[in-house]
Amino acid sequence: MAEKSLTATAYDVIKKQILNCVILPGDRIDEQMICSAYEIGKTPFREAIIRLVAEQLVEVIPRKGMYASRLDAKEISEVFSFRKIFEPVTVCQNLHLVDLNALEDNIEQLRMLCKNIPQVDAETLCTCDFEFHHILVSSAHNTRLDRSFVPVFQDAYRISMLNGLRNEINKETWVETLEHHKLIYRAIMEENTDEIANAYNFHLNYYLSSALRTIRNLSTNT
């Protein structure tokens, strides 16, 4: 396999494991295990790590090793603060550009997933959830804004996965998410900017509270 392809493989493997909390926030990345499991040499592995450091998903601590970037209470609060400031504003300023059909399809997809929660994995549910938010943010067609949201959404996705893995995230939780999304969608359809902000803030505060409880529980148990 070509060196470039091996680097891409290492990058994809490590990134997926970090995003899906196979490697938990703050956990050490086992170079030997990953290289052995995927037949990757040290050079492509470390080239992949360099890319992930640039994406703020990996921290390298000299003489200690490589770690999935941490998510403590402060960082989680910052992620949600950023989202509460910029997501509703982006939507309200670009109401005429929002892809309503894409939102409707996404809501229908989540509705169908909610019918079969025990058989649906967390990755599928979280991906569907965040696709809703990607649709809204990308409506601005602003490359700089999109770039700013990449690390924020990556951490928000990790928070959602961690929340699901550490708590009893059940059908009621995802039905709640569906109802939140429907409220945001309805406010957009009505072009009611106050209700868009209210629905967004309620949705994000709901999950901020849940995420902070998860972090507190993890801290208590370690």
Short description:
The chain has 9 helices and 2 strands, in the order αααββαααααα. Helix 4 packs across helix 7, helix 4 runs antiparallel to helix 9 and helix 5 packs antiparallel against helix 8.
Q: What is the tally of helical segments? A: 9
The proportion of residues in beta strands is: under 5%
* H/E element order: HHHEEHHHHHH
> Which CATH C-level class of the largest domain is it?
Mainly Alpha
Spatial extent as radius of gyration:
19 Å
Backbone shape: globular
Known CATH architecture of the largest domain = Up-down Bundle
Largest sheet: 2 strands, antiparallel
The neighbouring-strand order within the major sheet is 1-2
Unreliable parts: none
Mean pLDDT: 92
Helix content percent band? over 70%
Number of domains: 2
Q: How many strand segments?
A: 2
Features of the shown structure:
222 residues; mainly alpha; Arc Repressor Mutant, subunit A; Four Helix Bundle (Hemerythrin (Met), subunit A); 2 domains; two-stranded antiparallel ribbon; 9 helices
Describe the structure in your own words:
Helices cover 73% and strands 4% of the residues. The chain has 222 residues and is mainly α. It folds into 2 domains: 3-68, Arc Repressor Mutant, subunit A, CATH 1.10.10; 73-221, GntR ligand-binding domain-like (Four Helix Bundle (Hemerythrin (Met), subunit A), Up-down Bundle). The relative contact order is 0.12.
Write the layout of secondary structure elements.
Layout: H1 3-19, H2 31-38, H3 42-54, E1 58-61, E2 65-68, H4 73-93, H5 100-114, H6 122-138, H7 143-166, H8 171-189, H9 193-221
Antiparallel strand pairs: 1-2
Helix pairs in contact: 1-3, 4-7, 4-9, 5-6, 5-8, 6-7, 7-9, 8-9
